[in-house]
Design goal:
The complex is a heterodimer of chains A (271) and B (271).
Chain A lengths: L18 H20 L4 H18 L7 H33 L7 H16 L2 H12 L3 H25 L3 H9 L4 H35 L8 H9 L3 H31 L4
Helix pairs in contact in A: 2-10, 3-4, 3-6, 3-8, 3-10, 4-6, 5-6, 6-8, 7-8, 8-10, 9-10
Chain B lengths: L2 H16 L3 E12 L2 E12 L3 E5 L6 H8 L7 E6 L2 E2 L5 H9 L1 E4 L11 H6 L19 H13 L15 H14 L4 E5 L7 H18 L2 E6 L2 H7 L2 E6 L2 E6 L6 H5 L10
Parallel strand pairs in B: 3-8, 3-9, 6-7, 7-8
Antiparallel strand pairs in B: 1-2, 1-4, 4-5, 9-10
Helix pairs in contact in B: 5-6, 6-7
Classes of the chains: A mainly alpha (271), B alpha/beta (271).
Chain lengths: 271, 271
Amino acid sequence: MSELVALRALPPRFSTPSWKAVLGIAFLIALAIWAFAGAGISTEDFIDGLPEMWRLIGEMFPPDIARSESIAWSLVETFQMALAGTIIGVLLSFPLSALAARNTSPHWSLYQVARGLTALFRTIPDLVWALFFVATVGIGPFAGTLTIAVDTMGFCARFFAEGMEEADRGPEEALKALGSSKISIFFAYIFPVSLPSITNSSLFSLEKAVRSSVILGLVGAGGIGIELKVAMEMFRYDQACTIILCILILVIGVERVSSFARSRLLDQSSR
Amino acid sequence: MTAAVAENVSEQSDEMKSHGASAVSFSGIRKSFGSNQVLCGVSFSCASHSATALIGANGSGKSTLLRCSLRLIEPDAGSIHVFGKSVRELSAGELRKVRSQVGFVFQKHNLVSRLSALTNVIHGAIGQGYSFRAWYQSIAPSELRERAFACLERVGLSDFALKPVQTLSGGQSQRVAIARAVFQKPKLILADEPAASLDPESGQQVMELLRELTQSEGIGLIFSTHHIDHALEFADRVVALKSGTIDFESAPDKLDATELRKFYMPSGSPL
């Protein structure tokens, strides 16, 4: 077989970046330098703090399990808050996401309102929501549950809506041609094709809720956070260690179960 | 058959009697997408119980014309009558009723992935008064499930009834789409290049199936195609579109395949 020889010149491996790309990269580098300058990074302080870190870790071991029963109940409460808050948040995210998706929203004004609400829920940090709910409904797990529900809505409504918007237009046109109403198109097509994305986002939001529910106790919104705060303030680092280990077990456990559930649910979604 | 469906069919027959035997008629249809004029005053009509092939090069307006007939695309000007009803003057509810009486088979089948073949066939009843009970086979009335299963049997896919449609081959998916159209008990089926995405053998089988089902059920058929052989073999009448206008229409026995192929050449016209 004769060797093939191209008649035209071989294109270069790399193309020369445009002046806009060079300017963009220079801007990003300048931005990073500016951020480091303002972040108060001090190698000296870090090195000075190393023996202190080592001492604190040393005081954590062996972990003190004297208050394990109380810690276990707080851990259960943390999980209950996370699960209940996620369920409320996911359920409320459905209508909100249907209004916040371009292809399912009945009117542009509703679309804008739904998008605005979703952004509001998402951009305000959960600790701020926790402070708000502690001040309005009082100290305890209910404030934490409401915080998680709002935080979940901000997260899920956005991703549910994006999943719905990714739905291919072809089957939607086919259902329209069959005489379907908008609501039938939503439930017979948009919902089932978005289900993998909805399942994924819901399980991720449960994992996220478990992690954030640990912190909420620091401001009085229930859960194990308050136990951790008290232990640290009383310099009982050995008790704090027990609490941190319990949190670690809970978070990893929820992540494992969530991954397993995700793979099983996504495999069996034909109906 | 429910009272609502029986009433629809009876209304439809009365309308058809008053407008002759024409299932669809187009008069002066114009449609532009931006500066690109796709249809430039197309007029023709298709009799019930007959098969019409629409041929023409890419961009000649075949798909647009078929979509205009059910207002899946809104024409800019002209009138369209389906079963004697002027579809451009129908309210949203009336339009859905007309759409539910016409089967539409798309080039890429447009089935709802992740749902079973049986559910996709049952979707054919969504516009016929069954509402949410036609969203999924699991909640459909027994009558619908039995009829849909019989339709799958007719297209040779009853063994695949509960298979998610994304696991089916292109030819099998197109047969499910045909079963969905037949399930509607339509008086007319519109098929937009039903064999275009299939290999020659599957394409031939799909066309044979469409022809057999429409002939045995007395259903009118309008299909667009690039396959000259399909147009000559399966149609009672061939309508050729060129640059958004009708170039010629003729009975297939008066056309010669070799001459007809010249129609696809840049300046060719067989007649």
